[in-house]
Amino acid sequence: MERLQKAIAASGYTSRRKAEDLIRQGRVKVNGEVVSELGFKVKQGDLIMVDDKALEGENKVYYLFYKPQGCICTLSDELGRPTVIDYFNDVSERIYPVGRLDYDTTGVLLMSNDGEFANLMMHPSSHLEKVYEVTITGLVTGETLNKLEKGIYLEGVKTLPCKIRVVGKDVEHKTTMLMIKLVEGKNRQVKKMFESMGHRVKRLHRISVGNIQLKGLRPGEYRRLKPQEVKELKNMALAKKQNYHKK
Ligand code: URA
To answer: Rounded distance, CA 41 to CA 78, Å?
Structure first.
């Protein structure tokens, strides 16, 4: 159930404030009856009409968000912590995160209201490449990297092969900075992989998902994805999925 003006705005027809004006002016009908009361609640399946024309479904929208530290990817939190949605005050569509980043992880997060797109991106067989910059405790050995690259068992399931490159070692503070490219996204996967080898992840930042990079955005900022970018993401995921099913 949601308020009528919110449902109208969410369809992309107009802003919430203008939707309130339409309701006050008696131009909105719900299931054939004029509703001029602002608090009126509608549920899924109700037929909303403005000037006797039915509202179209919500426009599909796609965003790239530079997730900052200190916010969660669920839409509400019982601990009252900030959520990624708090950064999207001026977006009326009901968007949600496509996949998850941890509370303290920063970087590329896709947001959309397109369920089909979200499922495709998150499906394990889509094998969409995700690149992370990681700082871990300790000076990592070549042997550890080899094991991680080939795949290790996490909770009984083997991780898929991945690519890791050492970017730098801080011998004084005993930390290593690396880039890791994964084609899967199990819960807390990067942290678990390094933890299983005795290294704690101190900093985790996602640089890219498929063809999408953060270029030009600062933490907490977002931009609409271009139609071409959405198309490329879909094509990449579909191509990988088809290969996967052929095997
Ligand atoms: N892997 C993790 O451990 N955490 C993230 O937020 C993303 C990938």
So the answer is: 25
Q: Mind listing the pLDDT tens digit for each residue in 71-123?
A: 999 877 788 899 999 999 888 787 899 999 999 999 999 999 888 999 999 98
Q: How many residues make up the chain in this entry? A: 247
- Residue of the CA atom closest to atom 7 of ligand 1: 101
Q: Which CATH number fits domain 62-125+211-225: 3.30.70.580, 3.75.10.10, 3.40.190.10, 3.30.450.20?
A: 3.30.70.580
Which two tokens mark 224? Answer: 């609409």
The model's confidence at residue 240, banded by pLDDT at 50, 70 and 90, is: confident
**Candidates 2.60.40.10, 3.30.70.1560, 1.20.1410.10, 3.40.50.2000; CATH matching 129-208:** 3.30.70.1560
Q: What is the CB < 6 Å shell around ligand 1?
A: 101-102, 105, 188-191, 204
CA of residue 204 to ligand 1 center, whole Å:
7
Mark whether 102 is an active-site residue: yes
Strand partners, 213: 208
Q: What is the pTM of this model?
A: 0.80
Token duo for residue 27: 């131009």
Look up the CATH number of domain 2-54: 3.10.290.10
